[in-house]
Amino acid sequence: MSDSLPPLAFLGAGSMGGAILRGVVASGIAVEAFAGEPRIFATNRTRVKAAELTGLVGVDSIALEAEPGGNARAAASARVVLVGVKPAMVPDLLRDIAPHLRADAMVISLAVGVPLQTFRSVLGEGVTVFRAMPNTPSLVGSGVTGLAPGPNATSEEVSIARRLFERVGAVIEVSEEQIDEVSAISGSGPAYVFLLIEELTRVAIDMGFREADARVMVQGTFRGAADLLGATPADPAELRRRVTSPKGTTERAIAVLQRAELGGLFREATSAALVRARELAAENRL
């Protein structure tokens, strides 16, 4: 299996698309030649946004306000086309690029709530499509991506898609019916963690710690706990028990958190995210 990737186009290289793009570049993986040179294409609406990607090795950063046909050019130049625009913008973008796609093109959606059928209805049944739900830690190579191949994706095409997202973290292959659940857990999950960090940092500041010291304590604790979990075969419940001495301070704190029924809160929160994803799917179904 090749360690390289075919030419890539990121159409809408904003928050998520930009994170994947930067992660791929940072990983150092080779991107196969297009017209004689390694090539990754990235499009953004404005010159300001496009300028943020200028200078990345092998990246042709296109500002659509300067080159209105930039999406079509990028799509025509790449085998793997990643669609990262807002869900409501996806159908118009697909109509724009459909006549320009290569015969062997793979189109990968990063958009929440846009079903594969919308892609196939615009691009045609013969175009290979995927839905992918990465998360923003992909920027630092620690992402999690749920990958749902379309019905006509070959094993080679699935391998290419996995190889792309494995450059920026872990990949789980799921059915399209599960991709919204992936969004609610790992897609939105970093925001849940950041919220917990925010709140515990405020508590530390309220206890009298300087903000800088509070950040060191809280962020270091979350980072260290995640590293410890990754370095041991023990599950989280066992690691929690090891910290929780009988009749100790942690036991008292954990009892308060358990009375708050965190499990119920997380179920309610992820259910709300899932409902919104399905609303978006209904709004963007063709």
Write the SSE topology:
Layout: E1 8-11, H1 15-27, E2 33-34, E3 37-38, E4 40-44, H2 47-51, E5 59-63, H3 70-76, E6 80-83, H4 90-97, E7 106-109, H5 116-123, E8 128-133, E9 143-149, H6 155-166, E10 169-173, H7 176-187, H8 189-206, H9 211-231, H10 236-243, H11 249-259, H12 262-283
Helix pairs in contact: 4-5, 7-12, 8-9
Structural class: alpha/beta
Overall geometry comes to elongated
Q: How many structural domains in the coordinates?
A: 2
* Averaged pLDDT: 92
Helix content: 40-55%
Strand content: 15-25%
Strand order of the largest sheet: 5-4-1-6-7-8-9-10
Describe the main β-sheet briefly: 8 strands, mixed
Q: CATH superfamily of the largest domain, called what?
A: NAD(P)-binding Rossmann-like Domain
Which value, in Å, is the CA radius of gyration?
21 Å
* Low-pLDDT windows of residues: none
Top CATH class of the largest domain: Alpha Beta
Number of strands: 10
- Terminal residue distance: 37 Å
The sequence of SSEs as H and E is EHEEEHEHEHEHEEHEHHHHHH
Output the CATH topology of the largest domain: Rossmann fold
Number of helices: 12
